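__Record contents__

***
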Amino acid sequence: MNPTHIKIIIAIGVLGVIALGVVLVLQNNPPSSGQCGVANCHGLDIECGTPVQMCTMEYQLGDKCRQYAKCGVASGKCQQIENPQFTACKSCAQKCENDFPNDPDKAFECESQCR
């Protein structure tokens, strides 16, 4: 092996050790409630974690429900907390998706009426 290959192998090894260290730190330090937020695009399958940017219009269907979603830390994990407002909105948005499966504009209009 030439010196360049050896340097590349060492660099990859160092990066691997750093990545392993990051994973271990994150596993041993669960998120605080301040780091626990809604992290999905369309509100129907809520995941809790770092917020993400909005999706395209087609994938925003149901996003209105996201305002009702509540997340919290339980057993060291960031997870959704049951919320009747979110459940009702989610049910309405899913009905809109089922009623207008091939027409995102009508589905989005229907969903905008969900409370």
User: Anything to note?
Assistant: The chain has two domains: 1-30, 32-111. Residues 19 and 25 are 10 Å apart (CA to CA).
